[in-house]
Amino acid sequence: MNRGELESERRRHLRRIWRPAVAFEGPLTAVADRRPGQEHAMRFMKSRVLATLSLAIACLVPAAAAEEGVVAALVQDTSGSIRPGDLQEAGRLTAELFASLPAGSRLSLFSFDDSARLVQKLTDDPEEMRYALTNLTIRGNFTALNDAIFDAVKYLEQDPSPRKLMLLITDGRDEKSVLKLDDALDFAREGGVRIYTVGVGNIDRQVLRRIAKLTGGDYDDMAVASGRRIALASAEAFAQAAPTVDIEAAPGGDDVESPPPPATDQPPRVEVEDTSMLPYVLIGSAAVVVLVLLGLGVRHLRRPDADPSSVLCRYCGTPLASSSAACPVCTPEYQEPAVSDPAPGAVPEPPPARDSVLEVVEPTARLTPKGSLYILEGEGAGTRYDLDTRRETLIGRSAGADICLADTSVSQKHCRIKPSAGWFMVYDLGSTNGTLVNDSEIKEYVLSAGDRLQVGETVLEFQADKPIEIS
Questions:
Q1: In degrees to the nearest 10, what's the CA dihedral of 153, 158, 163, 167?
Q2: In this structure, what DSSP letter does residue 391 have?
């Protein structure tokens, strides 16, 4: 991998794991490009800024060691539509999830076909779960999916732990449930159970994505599902849920009046509520540090590395050894002839006339590369659409869209792609089923060559040349 490919991969990695830090990279690089020979200073300054921002964010994240255990239910489809190999994959996924959950977590096992049943009660022993999974067999002619969700949520509700999740492994097709799907999902939301769905067999992805989205979970096919990713996603979701504090009522009820305060000559004491300002102080301090480092970095870039008394090139500002030295950056024909200081009392000679007018050297510009979208899956597979580098491209089911997709799960105006500073940005337009890039739902995203963009049931691959630099 050459230097250019390494730099491209580094930027792509930063954009995915931490967009706030990458937002500083573009303006800082633009400042560095104005001063030839200062790339090393730019890299040093960016590393300091990113390290400071990372430290500030880390100070606000609670310690993982204090994370509370999770109670979970593995709900496994054992109807005739499931293959034996799917049960083996379920065992692998469960073992990986068990190992990735916080200490003190407990798992239970439900199976369902013609009806739903509890196979293994909540346990913190991975061996018990492994033994229960190995004894599962495929049977029955129908699938009671909705009833299984309801029964598993009802079982988890009996546990006092506030952190509850369900791992649902099925093809998403219900055939013999007493309850409707909306009844089961409403019950799961009321019980605070997040459902993570994994598709096997002949998958109805729309149903499984709906179950996950309405309960705060996520969806994956079994081929790409990861127990560690499910554990991390659930931990992040539980951490974001704001805890509520219940104020205990007086023992006598709401009608009990408090006795009047005793008379005193002292002024009334004002009770100040503790609002826990520490996070705001940390954020403000981090912002001040970042601004100071930015100021120092720009000042460093503008200051020549040579001695202050050295001569600078009048065209690019590069330090020169003397007034007669040639600039190592500019082209020789743009250099003025050296002029020595006149002796005291002597009349300086006028400069020689120029034979031609000087050209203005334009700075290096970055052009947006040519990009295109190639339909891999869905209606119109094999079709390629070239993206306009001068205006936005609208994707949707509307007849007025630039890329019109005959997919009922695609919104009228689903998403748009905008060329910006050498890159293509994709923005979700509040679509019903969301916009996914590489199987992750996004609101906005910087596309790179090879990214898989999914709108509804249509999967498109983004293809692009490298950004072009011209002088």
A1: -30
A2: S
Strands 468-470 and 365-367: antiparallel
- How far apart, in whole angstroms, are the C-alpha atoms of residue 295 and residue 60? 25
Taking alpha carbons only, the member of 61, 62, 57, 58 closest to residue 287 is 57
Which range among 136-140, 367-371, 414-418 shows the weakest confidence by mean pLDDT?
Answer: 367-371
Helix (H, G, I), strand (E, B) or coil at 352: coil
Q: Which of 186, 174, 164 is nearest to 107 (CA)?
A: 164
Closest CA relative to residue 406, chosen from 427, 380, 384: 380
SS3 (DSSP) at 305: coil
Who wins on pLDDT, 260 or 165? Answer: 165
Q: Measured between alpha carbons, how far is 90 from 198 in angstroms, rounded to an integer?
A: 9
- Phi then psi for residue 354, to 5 deg, are -85, 140
Tokens of 248: 């205990």
Query: For residues 412 and 359, what is the distance between their CA atoms, to the nearest angstrom?
Result: 51
Exposure string for 293-332, b = 16+ CB within 10 A, e = fewer: bbeebeeebeeeeeeeeeeebebbbbbbeeeeeebeebee
Q: How many helical (H) and strand (E) elements, i.e. helices and strands, does the chain have? A: 11, 21
DSSP string, 167-179: EEEE-S--SS-SS
Checking if the pLDDT of 48 tops 50, the result is yes
Bridge partners (DSSP) listed for residue 425: 418, 446
Beta bridge partners of 194: 165
Buried residues in 444-467 as b, exposed as e (16+ CB within 10 A): ebbbbeebebbbbbbbbbbbbeee
The answer to whether the Cα torsion of 130, 132, 138, 143 is positive or negative is negative
| Mean pLDDT for the chain overall | 75
- Collapsing DSSP states into helix, strand and coil, what is residue 283? helix
